[in-house]
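Thread amino acids onto this structure.
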């Protein structure tokens, strides 16, 4: 039996039936999460934790073994500790805002086996649990419109659902999404993606993707340079409401 889930359900006034209805599974499946200690699928774990007001790690510690690549683990830890996360993406939807289908399509490009893809997709979905914590970090994502218009998967359905998911995430109090329009002339964001994190003690850490591994730094000069770059990029992006309108318009173009 999973006592942590049982206690959390009692505290939240939820039953297996009410939980199943909100998550979209059979009540018998939800009951097994308690009585047999079954571990839900990654996307269901995130939803259940949100409903129960708990952290995924508190409910299913055994499910959260390290699945991300070793070189990415430090940044994954930083994400979990951060009080604020800001990131710019030029070509991809940010990992924290990806659907499972989009994550699978993109990770499969460079991952040789389906088992490895499954592990990486699970890790990416688990990262998103921070958005549904009782006290989530502020997440500000700036995305180039090209990332929303580049097809992933075999048809437009995947991208329509991905854009709709971004719009849904943007409705969360802790998430702000800004889009740099396609008709923007060359700008500093074309130099590549990066992320900035602020930790509870005020320390700042930066992450930049490379072709083989991430570059993570707390060097003051590097972070100051990225902060200036961030300010210039945000200046090219649409305001929050207009960005959300654009995301929804792009979603409607995918059929």
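Threaded sequence (255 positions):
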């Amino acid at each position: 039996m999973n006592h942590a889930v049982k206690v959390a359900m009692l505290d939240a006034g939820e039953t297996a039936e009410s939980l199943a209805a909100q998550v979209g599974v059979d009540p018998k499946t939800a009951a097994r999460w308690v009585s047999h200690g079954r571990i839900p699928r990654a996307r269901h774990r995130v939803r259940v934790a949100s409903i129960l007001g708990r952290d995924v790690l508190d409910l299913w510690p055994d499910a959260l073994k390290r699945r991300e690549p070793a070189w990415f683990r430090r940044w994954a830890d930083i994400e979990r500790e951060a009080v604020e996360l800001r990131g710019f993406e030029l070509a991809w939807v940010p990992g924290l805002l990806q659907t499972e289908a989009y994550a699978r399509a993109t990770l499969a490009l460079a991952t040789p086996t389906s088992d490895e893809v499954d592990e990486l997709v699970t890790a990416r979905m688990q990262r998103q649990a921070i958005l549904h914590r009782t006290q989530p970090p502020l997440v500000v994502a700036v995305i180039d419109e090209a990332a929303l218009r580049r097809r992933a998967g075999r048809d437009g359905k995947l991208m329509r659902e991905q854009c709709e998911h971004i719009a849904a995430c943007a409705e969360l109090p802790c998430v702000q999404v800004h889009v740099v329009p396609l008709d923007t002339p060359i700008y500093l964001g074309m130099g590549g993606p990066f992320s900035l994190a602020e930790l509870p003690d005020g320390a700042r850490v930066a992450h930049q993707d490379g072709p083989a591994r991430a570059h993570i730094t707390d060097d003051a000069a590097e972070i100051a340079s990225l902060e200036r770059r961030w300010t210039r990029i945000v200046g090219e992006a649409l305001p929050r409401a207009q960005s959300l309108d654009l995301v929804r318009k792009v979603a409607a173009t995918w059929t």
